[in-house]
Amino acid sequence: MLKYWLGVLSLISVTAYSQPVAIDDASMAQVVGRDGIALQIELDLNAQGDSSKTATLNNDMKPLASLNGCVGTGTATTEGNPCRFAFEAANHTYNGGEWLVFKDAYASLRIFTLLLDGSTLGSANSNTAYFDPTRFQSATGSCLLPVGCASATAMNGLNALIFSYPAVATSYSPSTGLSSGYTSMQMGLDIGRMSMEFGATGYNYDANTNGFLGIKMADNNGPMAGIAVQGKAFVYGF
Length: 238
What we know:
By secondary structure, this protein is mainly β.
């Protein structure tokens, strides 16, 4: 089961009319974001999400109750443990198919306060060691940008999307193993075991009740690991 939730808060300049009015291209070009857009994203796999839908770290990732807690074993023909996902090996047809099955599996990804804004690159733009003008050229070598591709400074006036995370204060105590302030993102992953299953519907089997590998992603604060990210990324050239 895969679900996602996306919250968007947008503050834009608008004009109220008593009746719907068509807007021409010139007018549309003057509409700009006043304060940008704030994004909050949650992606859950076989997991119960954050019902509050607020930008706080609740550390409450857990398997869906409707899927039997993602634990236990079944038989070769039943969904004894439905919390799983699998990859089928291409061109391997032994007994109808070979599958690498991830069992007792559930995960969550949450991104808080990802800010989206628009601007121009500005005069601070300059060449770096990673500047490659060929990225803005056609297959025949023609520049695709109206300002030219010779240097980064020629692109100062180009429109750009700005993705940014606000700065956060973080701390970590080696003595207790506890951290705080890592609130930009949360990632949690729990895979109880992995095994090979065979058959056309091997993704749904639990004949091999043993496992050769398990994976868990968390930290000492709870079942999810917190990540601190700060800074800006400019997307341009479109």
